[in-house]
Design a protein that fits this description.
Elements (H helix, E strand, L loop, with lengths): L4 H11 L2 E5 L6 H16 L3 E5 L30 E5 L9 H7 L4 E6 L10 E4 L6 H13 L5 H15 L9 H11 L5 H10 L3 H11 L3 E3 L4 E6 L1 H7 L9 H6 L6 E9 L2 E8 L5 H6 L4 E2 L3 E7 L2 H21 L1
Parallel strand pairs: 1-2, 1-3, 3-4, 4-5, 7-8
Antiparallel strand pairs: 6-7, 8-9, 9-11, 10-11
Helix pairs in contact: 2-4, 2-5, 4-5, 5-6, 5-7, 8-9
Length: 330
């Protein structure tokens, strides 16, 4: 067996007849783009491919424009697959309990990912922490296999993942390779302006109202270096939105020039919270999230919180202040 994970994964996929692709909970553009790009590519080489998501809807509304998005959760799971393939997943817990149990039934278990904070749980892992997106890795994998099989639909899915996880090429994870691959994908005739608009800018009227509610109540600490927005169940009920509609709002707070740490706390059930961290410069969002059992990237990470809102809020604030004090001291 080769020590090259690209060749090793290709070898297993070439031998496989059935492949199951697994997405993380609340999939973003990189996760959905990775799944759909792989679905299209593997289908073209004659594989029986099923894609699974534990979320409802399986694909966020703003990503349903992607080619083949309806195939996710379309097919009933087989008793066993030749290959179980997790994409954009740094931790088994991100699959959800039911999908993780199903994932384990694969004869060969593979993960393709780019998260810095990770817990390996596969037979074969292709992880590049310096890659801006999982779709960036997949473009190289597909090119390694047979670049001629990449078509416009695949390019759209791959490009969407890169746009999502680089914040339209504005985040520090954007590298020379990221731009080179994006440039290659543009050659397939995709509408990059339309993709950027759909993924990064468009919001519904309901989401606009939700943002207004929570941003109006943003709290600031440490001379404006920490900003915390919070969503209560009432906010979702009043605006007919869900936790999936919180994405992107945190970046509005992060864009304030004095902010070093932005936090979003979303109540998703009684005493249960979805927490997101975004940071600038040398403060690690992943370190903040790890304190609560989560993880992610250096400047973008998340976790779950449990307990009374006031207690969770104070713990988060204390962690942020400790991180900021450590950053200021160094």
């Amino acid at each position: 067996m080769t020590n090259n994970p690209y060749l090793e994964i290709i070898e297993h996929l070439k031998k496989a007849n059935t492949v199951a692709i697994y997405m993380h909970i609340n999939p973003d553009g990189d996760c959905v783009g990775s799944s759909l790009a792989l679905y299209s590519f593997l289908s073209k080489v004659g594989k029986n491919v099923h894609c699974f998501s534990a979320s409802d809807p399986a694909v966020p509304k703003k990503l349903q424009f992607l080619p083949n998005s309806k195939v996710i959760n379309k097919f009933q799971a087989l008793n066993k697959y030749d290959v179980s393939l997790g994409v954009d997943v740094g931790d088994a817990g991100r699959l959800g309990d039911a999908l993780y149990k199903q994932y384990l039934k694969g004869q060969t278990k593979i993960v393709i990912d780019h998260h810095e904070e990770n817990k390996d749980f596969a037979d074969i892992t292709l992880r590049e922490n310096n890659a801006a997106a999982t779709t960036q890795i997949l473009y190289k994998l597909m090119s390694y296999w047979d670049k001629d099989l990449i078509d416009k639909d695949i390019a759209i899915a791959l490009y969407t993942g890169i746009v999502t996880d680089t914040g339209s090429f504005s985040f520090s994870n954007t590298s020379t390779e990221t731009h080179q691959i994006a440039s290659e994908l543009l050659k397939y005739g995709l509408d990059n302006a339309e993709i950027n608009r759909r993924v990064m800018k468009d919001v519904s009227y309901n989401v606009f109202n939700l943002r207004n509610r929570v941003l109006n109540n943003t709290k600031f600490y440490n001379d404006g270096k920490i900003g915390i927005i919070s969503y209560k169940l009432e906010d979702f009920e009043k605006t007919n939105t869900t936790e999936n509609d919180t994405e992107g709002t945190i970046n509005i707070v992060l864009n304030i020039d004095s902010i070093e740490i932005a936090v979003s706390i979303a109540e998703i059930a009684d005493k249960k919270y979805k927490i997101s961290f975004r940071t600038k410069h040398k403060v690690s969002a992943a370190a903040c999230a790890k304190t609560f059992g989560g993880g992610g990237h250096f400047h973008a990470a998340g976790c779950r919180g449990y307990g009374h809102f006031e207690d969770v809020y104070q713990k988060i604030l204390s962690v942020c202040q400790e991180m900021l004090d450590h950053y200021d001291a160094n």
